[in-house]
Amino acid sequence: MYVCLCHGVTDHHIREAVSQGVRSMRELRRELGLCGSCGRCGPHAREVLTEATADISAVAVHIPMPARDPECSIA
Ligand code: FES
């Protein structure tokens, strides 16, 4: 879905930017150029950014820890 019509930015573009490390509206503006014209996209862009950041955090929480190797323990 288009979030910023002035710059042709979709929610997919925002999610992709978040997956590559973007975490703030300032970074999002710099990377994708949204909010640079009429500014109407700001609230929706922030919403998508917040959701995408939460999704990334949820995935990070579920990364399994490697199994312990008893021979590598420090006694
Ligand atoms: S809709 Fe994004 S700057 Fe106009």
Which labels suit this protein?
single chain, mainly alpha, Arc Repressor Mutant, subunit A, two-stranded antiparallel ribbon, 3 helices, 2 strands, 49% helix, binds FE2/S2 (inorganic) cluster
Structural commentary:
- With 75 residues, this protein is mainly alpha-helical.
- It has one domain (2-61): Orthogonal Bundle (Arc Repressor Mutant, subunit A), CATH 1.10.10.1100.
- The chain contains three helices and two strands.
- Strands 1-2 form a two-stranded antiparallel ribbon.
- A hairpin with a 4-residue loop joins strand 1 (2-4) and strand 2 (9-10).
- The mean pLDDT is 88.
- FE2/S2 (inorganic) cluster binds next to loops.
Low-confidence stretches: none
Radius of gyration: 18 Å
CATH class: Mainly Alpha
Query: Which molecules other than protein and nucleic acid are bound?
Result: FE2/S2 (inorganic) cluster
Supply the helix-strand structural class: mainly alpha
Dominant shape = elongated
Domain tally: 1
Element-by-element helix/strand order: EEHHH
- Name of the CATH architecture: Orthogonal Bundle
Helix-residue proportion: 40-55%
Mean pLDDT: 88
- Total count of helical runs of at least 4 residues: 3
